[in-house]
Amino acid sequence: MIHPRVLLANEAGAGRGHLLKLAAVARALGPGPEIVAAIADLRHAAALGGVAARVLAAPPLRYTRAAREDPTLEGNATWGDYLAGIGLVRADVVRRGLAWWRKAIVDEDASLLVADYAPLAILAAQGLKADGWRIEIVAVGTGYGTPPATLARFPRLLPDFARSLHSEEAILSVVNRVAGETGLDPLPRLPAIGAADLTLPMTLPFLDPYAGGRAAGELLAPLVDMPGPTLPPAGDELFVYAAAGELKAGGLVDALSALPMRRRGFLPGVSPETAARLVASGMVLEPAPLAAEVIARRTRLWLHAAQHGSLCTAAVWGIPQVAIPQQLEQLCHGRRMEAAGGLHLLPLRESTPEAIRAAVLTAWSDGALARQARDLSRALRAAQPARPMDQLAERLAPVLARIHADPSR
């Protein structure tokens, strides 16, 4: 049997969740494949430990420094605005990315590309495939991060965010002009940049902003540990998950230092100074991620920035949540989770130390919020597969079968 040579790809997004998802897909492929990862942000490369034989530094797609300092310099209405903001409206960025990924796929002799937040990697693979290169393309991510490639246009995601500085036609013109320099056929519309042989959006159904545009049965369960038939009783701690950048926003560190309850957190990338301050206040900082069951047994309330993994894990384990979203994906997911129940959302602009402390203390003793969380968990456990990794492996099986059956590979 010929084992596939797999290239894991990520170009954008700063969270370790992107790499955890790639690592999970790699594990779901089973033993045998030769795996190399090409990622834009090496800070969380350890998440690929035990999966990738090598990790390459890929060219990043990101907002310019000016746009990070002044968000009004970029659009915020649709996924197209996001693609423009991270560079797809700049010909030099598209040209560099396409050339790099085309070379990486050829140099690594990849027969399978697994891409999360990697539009230029997918586009490069599309072009090579059209030229006769034998490669399967798998797009993975949350529902938010894997819009259907069949959409005519990207829809508006949040009613109160409507700024578009670049039309889809303008973005598509740049992409097609640069892609045409290497002989790629023009894309018919911008969403087609994500076209893959297999798309694996992994999220809870009510969190998917593109639910109406997906093929039946396309959505997969999020890759979180699922509880058994009975939830553990609520614990007596506040659990906090926040990356270094999220700790800097608002008054979170001040609030955490002043809260009276038992506190425990996993804060990847936290500075030594901030860690020392929190520990001095009595907070326990974990050096590595905790298993979901361990969190559930200890935790009465979960505080986070509405990261997708935290939202889904807390929801299926019935843990009430307080979230302070810091970017549009988190806000979109957070609002949808709040509507489903069991979560209180605190806007970033209101996240003073006093407001965070008040929100946590209120949620801590909110019996209705706790009941909503348990009710939601009950519904999710009845509808979601008990072993999401098995579902993922089953969905990947036809891709592997095509690779193994191709005598030219």
TrEMBL record:
<dbReference type="Pfam" id="PF06722">
    <property type="entry name" value="EryCIII-like_C"/>
</dbReference>
<protein>
    <submittedName>
        <fullName>Glycosyltransferase family 1 protein</fullName>
    </submittedName>
</protein>
<keyword id="KW-0808">Transferase</keyword>
<dbReference type="GO" id="GO:0016757">
    <property type="term" value="F:glycosyltransferase activity"/>
</dbReference>
<dbReference type="InterPro" id="IPR010610">
    <property type="entry name" value="EryCIII-like_C"/>
</dbReference>
<feature type="domain" description="Erythromycin biosynthesis protein CIII-like C-terminal">
    <location>
        <begin position="303"/>
        <end position="385"/>
    </location>
</feature>
